[in-house]
Amino acid sequence: MPRQPIVNETLSVLEQAKESAKDLLETEKPYLDTVFEGKTLADVENGIKNLNNYAEKCYIASALALYSIIYDKQLYTESGLPWEEYTKQTKERLGIDRCELSRQLTSARFFVKHHKQMLKAGWKPEGSRRKLEKAEYVLSLSGSVQQTIKHLVKDTWREFFDWYSSLIEKPKALSLPEDPKVKVSMYQGKFYLNDIEAVKVSEELPVTERMKLNQYIEQIFESISAGYEPAIIPVYDKKEAAAILRLRDKRREEK
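Given the sequence above, the corresponding structure tokens read:
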């Protein structure tokens, strides 16, 4: 008899994660024999489907363990490393890179916080991995736990993606005046076109990065103000950049 999903809010984060992981992994086992010794197409397809479903459940169980034990209970401190340094060793320690670690932590944090509502809404682990990885971000867009969980449970990945994409505020296109001579100015990290703020560089960026970004933006706006079409061309170094500029000047002379 399958275990009933845990919905007891009185349990600690670790207890919730443990019970949820048991529910995920004890209700279904992978059947390798069905895959490799199946007699019909349906046998093999069902075996592969079972394996994929089991892999989804293992992912969520891994995410719950990472979040509730290593991160939330700070077991990582046994390594003698601060969290930021520990995450640089996840490939060797956990078999996953830092990006995957971040995705699993994000998935587990949302699951632990909202698992009761998810289960009541009919959530199933099969096919939910990509949606769960995005759930926190989508919640920040929608502002509604109920709506986010509704789409998380009912939508396919493509439907979920289309829905949350529709919530993203599209940047307004910068319309330049017909006269290509545009007045460009910069003040306190903000760039202005004809005295209208167009770009602001965050003061939270490191000084070197901010200066570099300011320089690039300034060069782009200088090109616009002169009536040129700015272009960004990746080069190895300043020598290669200079060579490209010489080719540009030679082409202009030939016109």
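Confidence is low (pLDDT under 50) at residues 1-10. Try to locate this feature in the token string yourself.
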